[in-house]
C-alpha cells in the first residue's frame, strides 16, 4: 500500500498492524492508515498542532487544545504529494 510506504518513510519508530488499520509511532502514535470511505480510497489519519485546510481533509477533530486529528482521504497516488509528506514529518516531530 503506497500510503503505508509514505508513512514509513517519515521515520516511524514502530509500526502496529491491526485488522482494520496500520498505526505508526514515534513516542506516541502520529499517523494511521485504514480503508477509505469509498471503494478505491485510503484514509490517512494524522495528528498535528493546528487545523489543516485542504480539499483532502474529510474531517478534523480537536482532541485537546493544540492537538487536531485529521482524516485525509487519498483517492489516487498523486494525492501523496510533498504537502502530505510535510504533514507527516510535522506529525512525527510532534509525537517525539
Q: Short summary of the structure?
A:
The model has no long low-confidence stretch (mean pLDDT 91). It contains two helices and six strands; from the N terminus they run αββββββα.
Give a written overview of the molecule.
This protein has helices spanning 2-9, 82-94; strands spanning 14-17, 21-25, 29-35, 42-48, 57-64, 67-74. A six-stranded antiparallel β-sheet has the order 1-2-3-4-6-5. The protein has two helices and six strands; from the N terminus they run H-E-E-E-E-E-E-H. The N and C termini lie far apart (25 Å). It has one domain (2-74). Strand 2 (21-25) and strand 3 form a beta hairpin. 22% of the residues lie in helices and 41% in strands. The protein is an alpha+beta fold. The chain is globular, with a radius of gyration of 12 Å.
